[in-house]
Specification:
With 381 residues, the chain is α/β, with parallel strands linked by helices. Helices cover 48% and strands 16% of the residues. The protein has 17 helices and eleven strands. It has helices spanning 29-35, 50-55, 59-69, 88-91, 94-105, 120-132, 146-152, 190-207, 209-217, 219-223, 227-247, 264-273, 280-297, 303-315, 323-327, 330-341, 364-375, and strands at residues 16-19, 42-49, 74-76, 81-83, 113-118, 138-143, 157-162, 165-172, 177-181, 347-352, 355-359.
Length: 381
Amino acid sequence: MWQIHQAFTMTHEFPVYFNRYTFNPESDILLKVLAFAGKKRHRVLPVIDDQVLKGHPDLVERMRAYAEAHADRIELIEPPLMVRGGEICKNDPVEVDEFYRRTQTDRIDRHSFALVIGGGAVIDAMGYAAATAHRGIRLIRMPTTVLAQNDAGIGVKNAINYRGRKNYLGTFAAPYAVINDYDLLSSLSARDSRCGIAEAVKVALIRDGEFFHWLHEARHRLGEFEPKAMEHMIARCAELHLNHIRTSGDPFEQGSARPLDFGHWGAHRMEELSNSELRHGEAVAIGIALDSLYSHAMGTIDTHTLLAIRDTLEGVGFTLRHPALEALDIDAALQGFREHLGGELCITLLISAGEAEEVDHIDLDTMHQCRQQLLENQWPS
């Protein structure tokens, strides 16, 4: 019998920048990113979320002016590919096919760049397109929502939805770079600005008790979207997410443990039940509240911590009750999450603010009781 054991190691590196006014001709951030691939003229296809363009109607003109000012380094491929913002681009991914078509008609190859400017859904869908066209086109992400800047836009996941299943088709492919431009957040609605705070609460609860304490103390400033508070929250949340990806030993989720999915097993299902009327961050806030109540019921966190979690979520403006929570089939949602993991059920629960554990069993009666407590706004005192 012949046997050859194959093994190799790859290093993935990508910078994440935090700045403002990327397309000011005096800014060199984009030039630095392109220079990683050599100091030459690089072909760049802009891919833009149509919701971003509504809030920043001069964006394309600013990009053109920037490219003209640096014509020796940038060849802007026109026209930009416009993508419908929100979950529609993942549910009905016609723009993914349009991206494939543009790679052929505009001669976009693996040495070209796709510059994707948009919210988390657009980042996900067009990241999937870029990762699969030519088996990988260089992707620069410019997330334009709080949620995308501190979570969805900085990881290695790319995905679209399929047959009602969220993120069913996708890839793990690191971006070439991420540019978090705070100025692009200026046109967000209060609802969209708030959604990203849920992920900060999540990662603080499972990774950094000091950061959770800061979020709790700053909850009203965050609820009013005070710029300095929001920028600190985004940067620290992104740092914790990136640290997990770098140090967890499982960046491409080959195992069953999903600690960064605290509060998510029910959130994804509630999004589906609401036909995406319930935003991801809003669903995650409810999921965090539910799993925190369960952690308390199982005796792993005290009442003081539980109420601090509630006060933080409500203090930034989240509503922790929704018809989708009442409609949630808890057993089916847990089984669906287990199938999504591809192994044993693995749910993250809290031990304290800043520390979590993974469990492979949920007491359904207790979880149902916690759901009822949340629906009736009955919290321990």
